[in-house]
Design brief:
It is a single chain. By secondary structure, the chain is α/β, with parallel strands linked by helices. The chain is about 30% helix and about 15% strand. It has six helices and six strands; from the N terminus they run E-E-E-H-E-H-H-E-H-E-H-H. The protein has a four-stranded parallel beta sheet. A two-stranded antiparallel sheet has the order 2-3. Strand 5, helix 4 (about 135-145) and strand 6 form a beta-alpha-beta unit.
Length: about 190
């Protein structure tokens, strides 16, 4: 098995949604960014927690996972959001821009079919705030087929917490990975 992917969403995970009063967590700082499809005179305000960068880097540096953006921000996650958190450029799942009015047009997260195709048989842990019971069932079915899959779902008004990343590392540490740099040990050698 290859190193599992860590699929990372942005909205509701790194950028929490405002609470009922329209406030963002006090841990987050405002930034104005200009996504690819916007003009410089029409920036988008985002609120990011500066602690998320170092926390994510600790996870990345373990080499237990391969981080990948999985967000409607697409490549802008790597060029706009990542640098504000001092993250290196990361690959991204090139999600389409569907014409939908809900994030669950078929009862599950709209990204899921695209992610399933993109993953193939690769193991993955996916952090997103918008899963439904159908997504959890999908993850359980992939795991039952030998494609280790886990979902981590932060509260969209709070976003990513350190315990979510602890969960990622605990899960990744249990996923068997074939490592090219580790010689295979025969059963006879193990018994000795």
């Amino acid at each position: 098995m290859r190193t599992p992917y860590l699929l990372l969403d942005v909205d509701g995970v790194l950028i929490p949604f405002p609470d009922a009063d329209g406030a963002s967590p006090t841990t987050h700082n405002r930034h104005d960014v200009v996504p690819t499809d916007r003009s410089a005179d029409d920036p988008v305000p985002v609120w990011l927690n500066p602690a998320h960068g170092p926390l994510l880097m600790q996870v990345i540096l373990t080499c237990l996972i391969t981080p990948v953006w999985c967000t409607s921000w697409r490549q802008d996650a790597s060029t706009l959001i990542g640098p504000l958190l001092d993250l290196p450029a990361l690959p991204y799942v090139d999600l389409p821009r569907p014409q939908i009015t809900t994030s669950h047009p078929n009862g599950y997260l709209w990204k899921r079919d695209h992610v399933d195709t993109w993953l193939g048989d690769a193991p993955a842990i996916w952090i997103d705030d918008d899963f439904t019971p159908f997504d959890h069932k999908w993850a359980a079915e992939r795991t039952a087929r030998g494609q280790a899959t886990a979902l981590v779902q932060p509260d969209p008004h709070v976003g990513l917490l350190a315990e979510h990343l602890v969960e990622v590392l605990a899960w990744a540490a249990l996923v068997p990975v074939a490592r090219a740099d580790v010689p295979a040990v025969s059963r006879e050698a193990e018994a000795a």
